[in-house]
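TASK: fixed-backbone design
INPUT:
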C-alpha cells in the first residue's frame, strides 16, 4: 500500500466537498478542518508539496480559532 498518501488526498477532497453539504457552521468548520489536516498529511508524504501544505496549514489554524472562539 505504497500509494496511501494518494488515498489521504482523496479523503481530504471528500471532507472539503462534504463540508459544502452542511448548514451548521460549526460542523462545516470541523469537516473543513479534517480536510485541511488530511491535505497537510498528503502534502508532506507526497514530497513536501508546499503549495498544498502552507495554505491548508493556515486554514486549519483559522478553523480551530473560529471553532474555539466564543461570541
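OUTPUT:
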Amino acid at each position: 500500500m505504497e500509494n496511501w498518501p494518494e488515498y489521504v488526498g482523496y479523503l481530504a477532497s471528500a471532507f472539503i466537498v462534504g463540508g459544502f453539504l452542511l448548514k451548521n457552521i460549526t460542523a462545516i468548520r470541523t469537516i473543513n478542518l479534517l480536510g485541511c489536516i488530511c491535505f497537510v498529511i498528503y502534502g508532506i508524504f507526497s514530497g513536501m508539496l508546499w503549495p498544498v501544505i502552507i495554505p491548508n496549514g493556515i486554514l486549519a489554524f483559522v478553523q480551530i480559532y473560529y471553532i474555539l472562539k466564543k461570541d
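COMMENT: The two ends are 45 Å apart (CA to CA).
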